[in-house]
Amino acid sequence: MANTLRVSHATGATLYFVIRDESGDVYNGTVFETWSAANWGNYDYPLTEQTSSGVYIGTFPALATGDYAVVIYKQENVPGSPAVGDVIVGTTTIPWDGTTIVGIEDCSDTRCAAAILDNPGNKLATVGSGEVTVNNTSAIATAVWASGTRTLTSFGTLVADVATQVWASVSRTLTAFSFDTNNATLEGRLTAGRATNLDNLDATVSSRAAASDLTTAQATLTKLDDTLEDDAGTYRFTTNALEQAPDSTSDATAANQTAILSAVSALNDLSSADVATAVLGATVDGAIDVEQALKVIFASQHGKMVRTATDPLTFQFYADDDTTVLFTWTIPTTGATRTST
Known about the structure:
The protein is of the alpha+beta class. The chain has helices spanning 110-117, 137-145, 158-168, 186-208, 211-226, 254-267, 272-280, 290-302; strands at residues 5-8, 15-20, 26-27, 32-33, 45-49, 55-58, 66-74, 87-96, 124-126, 132-134, 228-231, 234-237, 283-284, 288-289, 305-310, 313-318, 325-331, 339-340.
């Protein structure tokens, strides 16, 4: 078809276009070939300006249906021939149906529909209200569910959205989810399941209760029964069963219990004076108590000391009153053993 390609450019230029296919090969007028600088003269298709209008028109060759890249060049050598190095002034993609360039207005064309959905029967359509719809939705749905590689995770939050809608529905009922024809409701299913489980439990208990276990349990119950006797309708332990218990007439008498409780009570009322008296009154070294021992120690370290003889040496240690002699050291000058009184 003549004059199928229209290009806008500044007036007075010499323009031409070169065609490439989807693989990048260049059309040489016969076939698409790998680009070669030596063959540049075979690649150009002229564009002719319409009387200084700035609109250039060219004829697109009769190629097979497809999408082609068109590169528009400005010829620098005028007069002359197209050459490698001419300036590119524009590019575009031509959807070609074998006869003409396919525009948006041609979307009802079979090829355009196939490009959209790979099936002309599924092309977009407009209903009377102007709403755009898809024809043959059943075929589309079938194709989606027939795909072996589909996954729910591919649909973003679809799973979560469905769950939210189900649980947010106030009218949902479990009875809508029948299990089978014999148990159409949840209650029927649970009843059947309960009966089956109880039967299984009974069989399990019976199998686990071996004869030897039952015999042992029976013997233990018999022994327990021998320790009880009827006391006017209330059972109590027999005398033999209690013969190892504490003797109520001597070990656990009321008097003994009272004495124990009094001693415990007295322990709860101890004063600091009681404690001090008990500690200071304790015997030290089988001769003197703690209080006397402390006085002797204090007198020897800080109290009054008087020497009363020279041979042997005699030292008297006094209490704080400087009158009472607490103890006396007798130290012989001959090296004999020191004595204390």
